[in-house]
Specification:
The chain is built from 12 helices and 9 strands. Helix 2 crosses helix 5, helix 7 runs antiparallel to helix 8 and helix 8 crosses helix 11. It is globular.
């Protein structure tokens, strides 16, 4: 059994879509292991929903690989690492290429896509697939990865390990700093003028783990994006008020529609309402009482 097939065997597969998602997650791990062979994690840290899933057990599919530099560097060149990711994938039987996403507007976020033919990967790793005719020959498995080259201050990091496709080490945001990034997304993310349901789902997950929020890092994020006055003090009570105000304006039907394709147990969304989110927010704690 190849390493990729061994990794895929850990997934519960019921249909073609499950196979595609399993492949996407395995490719994410292969890309991460390829980066770990380089000096990438001397300069950058893993963050976002996929980091939360891989290292803290978030039970939803996450599409992207998100990174942040440890210290700002607008000259950081993500393309320096493309060949390492491609070589890692190809050495394990995955035929993938990395392409940089060229943005028309200057941004702190640099992006690229790891792409491979869906049908080719399905044939390679699932010999008994009966639905190949339902896969468009031009369909691609695409993994977006992004890096923030001008990160806000006060994040904290930790090192964690993975065993497959081989043992490797990753530097990532600790749980309070990850939580700060998620709360910033809940409060400030501009997404078609409505909240992203995946942000709310992750918010519930953090609270279920009794996670504390890195308040100083959250304030730095909000100041950087123009959502908070640097001279103003951010306390946990003020943060709760801001969240509760946000929860009164959310269209929860639309929020559920955003996340439902990424989870298996749809019942977890049944209680979503202003009252639910306001009540659980009373349990929110931080590792710094004020900033």
């Amino acid at each position: 059994m190849t390493i990729i097939k061994q990794m895929l065997s850990n997934y519960e597969i019921n249909n073609l879509e499950d196979k595609k998602n399993a492949l996407k997650e395995v490719v994410q791990e292969v890309a991460l292991s390829g980066l770990a062979r380089t000096n990438f994690f001397n300069h950058a840290v893993f963050c976002g929903g996929t980091a939360l899933r891989m290292f803290y057990g978030l039970d939803r599919f996450s599409e992207d690989l998100d990174f942040s530099l440890v210290t700002p560097n607008e000259q950081f060149d993500l393309s320096d690492y493309f060949s390492y990711i491609e070589n890692e994938a190809n050495s394990l039987g995955l035929n993938f290429k990395v392409e940089e996403k060229v943005k028309e507007i200057d941004s702190n976020i640099k992006s690229a896509f790891l792409k491979g033919g869906t049908k080719e990967q399905i044939i390679t790793f699932y010999e008994n697939e009966d639905n190949l005719k339902n896969i468009n020959p031009r369909e691609l498995i695409k993994i977006k990865f992004e890096i923030d080259v001008n990160p806000p201050d006060y994040a904290s990091f930790e090192n964690k390990f993975r065993l497959l496709p081989y043992p490797y080490q990753v530097k990532l945001y600790d749980m309070p700093s990850l939580f700060a990034g998620k709360i910033h997304a809940v409060l400030c993310r501009g997404w078609k003028s409505r909240v992203k349901g995946r942000d709310l789902y992750d918010y519930v997950f953090y609270l279920s783990k009794n996670a504390k929020v890195n308040l100083k890092h959250l304030k730095a994020r909000m100041v950087q994006t123009g959502h908070f006055d640097e001279k103003e003090e951010l306390t946990i009570d003020k943060l709760k008020d801001m969240l509760n105000k946000k929860f009164t304006s959310i269209d929860y039907i639309n929020a559920k529609e955003d996340v439902v394709a990424f989870i298996k147990d749809k019942r977890k969304l049944d209680l979503w309402s202003k009252e639910f989110f306001t009540d659980i927010t009373s349990n929110l704690k931080c590792n710094h009482e004020k900033t």
